[in-house]
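Example record

One chain of 203 residues, shown exactly as stored in the release files.
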Amino acid sequence: MVDLCVFDLGGVILPFDHRKIASRLAKRSPIPEERIFSMLFDGETGLINAYEEGHISSFEFFLLLRQTLRIEASFEEFTDAWNQIFEEDGKVVEILHRLKDRGKALFLLSNTNELHFSHLIASYPVLHLFDEWILSFEVGARKPKREIFEKIFQKSHLLPHRTLYVDDLSENVLAASSLGIKAHLFSGAENLELFLEEQGVLP
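Predicted structure tokens for this chain:
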């Protein structure tokens, strides 16, 4: 029996496009858009990693980018460019409401940062459906690291087989599965609904 449903945020509940950030910053930098994108978001070397693990503050991150990417912008202008990349998947939101109505506990598990999450909780009421937020910048670790997944058990006091997890990245699904969690690789609301029905979470 599944008692806890854990969801990734970006790419599942809120589709997003990091390239919009690179495009906006390129207008304020002599560095080409593709180079900005790779410097920010490429794998283990991306500048975003230290920020999303909470090792530097939002303003320190802004100063780092202003120096490294040579952007000409105020902190407020940068924040606006940084945050305007999300939209909401209404079908997934509907599924979350159904899970909540059936009494399932909901946790959010996200690689995110202070600027994004402050913006999102003020802009998207769906985030207040969750019983717990497990956020990389607060934990000090990003998925697929084991430490952030272990927070699920610390906060829920449930065994892995009573937990399911939904993410749009295969490496995160594999990390969750390796801990005994029932994990689903998100590819759309219809397949998610089928998975939840198979697990007996939705009728």
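Notes: The first strand starts at residue 4 and ends at 7.
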